[in-house]
Amino acid sequence: MALYRAAAAVLAGLERGEGGLKSLVFNSGFPHVRQLYALVSETLRYASVLEKLLDGAALLQTEKKLAPQLAKVLVYDLLFGKGLKCGGRWKALARRHRARLEAELARMKVRHRVSRNEDLLAPEKAVSAAASQVPRYVRVNTLKTCVDDVIDFFKRQGYAYLGKAVSVEELKTLSGKKFLLDLHLPELLVFPSQTDLHDNLLYTSGHIILQDKASCLPAFLLGPVAGSHVIDACAAPGNKTSHLAAILKNKGQIFAFDVDPKRMATMNTLLTRAGVTGCQLAQQDFLTVDPRDPKYSRVTHILLDPSCSGSGMVTRGPGEEAAPSAERLQALAGFQRRVLNHALSFPALRRLVYSTCSLHQEENEDVVQAVLQEWGSAFRLVTAFPSWPCRGLAAFSGAESCLRASPAETLTHGFFVAVLERCKEGAAAPSSLPAAAKENPQPGEGTEPGAAPKKRKKKKQWMK
């Protein structure tokens, strides 16, 4: 039974947006991680089928004490796996409902005119196909190296550098050992989706960060100048925090909060490997942080990426997309509104980025609209990345200032980003941030913030 409880806990963590599939499995404490990963992966793959089976058989209505996540893994192994590997009351429960579940599965096959269980997965296969097009994005950690040197290193490893991409379509054609410089972000390299760099020296030494392009947008769009004081409100596992440190050039101060001790330990390891300094980690719920504390009197920028449904996350294996209930979405949106309101209450705040890895309007445009209405004319939206192709849903006037990302349109995870700026009487109108993609230079061609350094650094010993 320990296997099923561990699998149910991982599914619940995914729904709460506490991490990715691999990290939750490996941090679960379950001794047989491969067995657990396989069970959760297959349960996720059949998620929509399992939900219909549970509804059709009224299992959760009959067994009111049975958690939905536990029900899914039990029914998966009962009907699609190798049979239940447990005894006691859970096996007895499954036997009581087996006939009803099998009958509902048979009706589903008749309705869809299929004969095999696999054939019920056609919609999931389409999602998986879109996800498989998402490339491997590699952010150069400018705290330790520069874009030019990383490109040279990969070239010496037999990779072919094709220059800067000119369109999203060009990213789809990558194959083999070829890579490009991203067309939007100046320190992001793009490799074919199947590229595995976890054992590469650059990754293990912290010179590169494996981070999806959409996940790089919040820190990039926040754009604090060196010397700024910044809060990363929901920081773990730390990729965005390390990105902020790189933008700040380790000059200034970052306050990073997360309530989960395991995630904070992972974050501390990541930041140390990345060479981040000037960052104070606090295992604390951001909602309990006092904005009037003198420690935060100089905080001008806040990156807020709160817990969400995680419905925009995709994997290179089985899908991780969550399917939260209406009640779950309502609860998440309520929390997101509270934490965004709290973030805006810091007295010196000038700019804030609100982001989620959710596709749901309730967690994105609706949250931003509600909070802006509460604050009246104190804050307004900045038009983020005017050249970005996907804008916010037209939920309210100004939603087009927000941006969205998706596997199909931007070849990234699903994401939402809004940039808010404080309004001051007599202040100049906020400019669009950042400028069009064409203003981002090739490595060595420019010196504006975010561009690769013009002067090549001396080769590091590890690159020789």
UniProtKB/TrEMBL annotation:
SUPFAM superfamilies: S-adenosyl-L-methionine-dependent methyltransferases (SSF53335). It is found in: Nucleus, Nucleolus. Residues 91-118 form a coiled coil. One of its GO terms (cellular component) is nucleolus. GO terms for molecular function: RNA binding; rRNA (cytosine-C5-)-methyltransferase activity. The keyword Plastid does not apply. CDD domains: AdoMet_MTases. Residues 430-464 are annotated as: Disordered. Residues 126-423 form the SAM-dependent MTase RsmB/NOP-type domain. S-adenosyl-L-methionine binds at C234, A235, A236, P237, G238, N239, K240, D258, D285, D305. GO terms for biological process: rRNA base methylation. It holds the Pfam family NSUN5_N. The keyword Coiled coil applies. InterPro entries: MeTrfase_RsmB-F_NOP2_cat, MeTrfase_RsmB-F_NOP2_dom, NSUN5_7_fdxn-like, NSUN5_RCM1_N, RCMT, SAM-dependent_MTases_sf. Keywords: Acetylation, Coiled coil, Methyltransferase, Nucleus, Phosphoprotein, RNA-binding, rRNA processing, S-adenosyl-L-methionine, Transferase. It comes from the Eukaryota. The active site is at C357. Signal peptide: none annotated. Residues 453-464 have a biased composition (Basic residues). PANTHER family: 28S RRNA (CYTOSINE-C(5))-METHYLTRANSFERASE, NOP2 YEAST -RELATED NOL1/NOP2/FMU SUN DOMAIN-CONTAINING. Belongs to the class I-like SAM-binding methyltransferase superfamily. RsmB/NOP family. This is 28S rRNA (cytosine-C(5))-methyltransferase. It comes from Illadopsis cleaveri (blackcap illadopsis). The gene is Nsun5.
